[in-house]
Amino acid sequence: MHQLLNTLYVTTENSFLRLDHETLKVSVERETKLQVPLHHLGGVVCFGDVMVSPALMRRCGEDGRSLVLLDRNGRFKARLEGPVSGNVLLRRAQHEWSSDAEKSLGIAKKLVAGKIQNSRQVLMRAAREAVDAEDEEALRDGATALADSLSRIRRCDDIDRLRGNEGESARAYFNCFDRMVLEDRESFRLDGRNRRPPLDPMNALLSFLYSMLTNDCVGAAEGVGLDPQVGFLHVLRPGRPALALDLMEELRAVLADRLALTLVNRRQITTAHFDDRPGGAIYLGEEGRKCVVVAYQTRKQEEILHPLLEQKIPLGLIPHIQARLLARVLRGDMEDYVPFLQR
């Protein structure tokens, strides 16, 4: 169990969460392991087989406190929500923009451009720091391919072409991802992106981080009154948080990819932190999940200079700021959405 910022992460299997007056108690095999005053918590995230009492679920719903259920590998399963709140006019504008092909394409282009530029920055930084000439060349070639993708975005006149361009840029990026792995490269070799299920340790690590980032983006969208299921780039499907997936695209490289590389290169995560499953699937074990959760929350507390706001803010607030900027565009207070770009 980890209480980080105002969110409680429960990673221990077979934990039981219950409400005791104004206190949340966590017990394992009838032994109390943690007690937290409820007013200290803004959300609870449960990994795997974690039981939650009806009274606690009811109270979380009443207070607007998020309760998120993920499987033991970090894949989103459910989210408890209380009564819908937020500006109904903002949500109506969001739905109208999503249904307007031209307006929706305009926002989607900004999201993809932000993703590609931030991914390119990761490659360029790694190329500058590379000690192997072959690695440096491959990384610079990858950065050039992403620059070409950026130039093609302007010519995309429909959402399908844009998605195709985004897919090509992602392949170019992950094709040279291995070049940034400095420790135990053979074990953490990334043979393309695979996630259902992940088939190698690096894919398992990335998928786990992306799951937590998605959850943050869902909370960011809901926090400003947006509907997390109605997006502009991702296809709308029942139960799919399309807008949260949109918002996370420009933040993958910043909040997840760089952290994954840091954990591996510093040997904070090794092959011992992963479990093999039947069929070739590989997932983070319990100790690995705890390590990544702590590192992710620590990363979110790092301060950076927001290029648009021109002030220092914690990285963990970036999804909330970007959701607020998007809301301003939908309301007509801003002309264009400005993606977050890591300098």
Structure explained in plain terms:
The chain is α/β, with parallel strands linked by helices. The protein has helices at 54-63, 88-99, 101-129, 133-153, 159-175, 201-223, 242-249, 252-265, 286-300, 318-331; strands at 2-4, 7-10, 15-20, 23-28, 31-37, 43-47, 51-52, 66-70, 76-80, 274-276, 282-284, 303-305, 312-314. A hairpin with a 5-residue loop joins strand 8 (66-70) and strand 9. The longest helix is centred in the middle third of the chain and has 29 residues, at 101-129. It is globular and about 60 Å long. The protein starts with a strand and ends in a 12-residue tail after the last helix. The mean pLDDT is 87.
Topology of this structure?
Blueprint: E1 2-4, E2 7-10, E3 15-20, E4 23-28, E5 31-37, E6 43-47, E7 51-52, H1 54-63, E8 66-70, E9 76-80, H2 88-99, H3 101-129, H4 133-153, H5 159-175, H6 201-223, H7 242-249, H8 252-265, E10 274-276, E11 282-284, H9 286-300, E12 303-305, E13 312-314, H10 318-331
Parallel strand pairs: 2-6, 3-7, 6-8
Antiparallel strand pairs: 1-2, 3-4, 4-5, 8-9, 10-11, 12-13
Helix pairs in contact: 3-4, 3-5, 3-8, 4-5, 6-7, 6-8, 6-9, 6-10, 8-9
Low-confidence region ranges: none
Question: Spatial order of the strands in the main sheet?
Answer: 1-2-6-8-9
CATH level-four homologous superfamily name of the largest domain: CRISPR-associated endonuclease Cas1, C-terminal domain
Overall morphology: globular
- The run of helices and strands is EEEEEEEHEEHHHHHHHEEHEEH
**Number of E-state strands:** 13
What portion of residues belong to β-strands?
15-25%
What count of helical segments does DSSP give?
10
Distance between the termini: 34 Å
Q: What would the average pLDDT be, to the nearest integer?
A: 87
Radius of gyration over C-alpha positions, nearest whole angstrom: 20 Å
Class inferred from helices and paired strands: alpha/beta
Percentage of residues assigned to helices:
40-55%
CATH topology of the largest domain: Four Helix Bundle (Hemerythrin (Met), subunit A)
CATH class of the largest domain: Mainly Alpha
The CATH architecture designation of the largest domain is Up-down Bundle
Largest sheet, strands/sense/barrel: 5 strands, mixed
Total number of distinct structural domains: 2
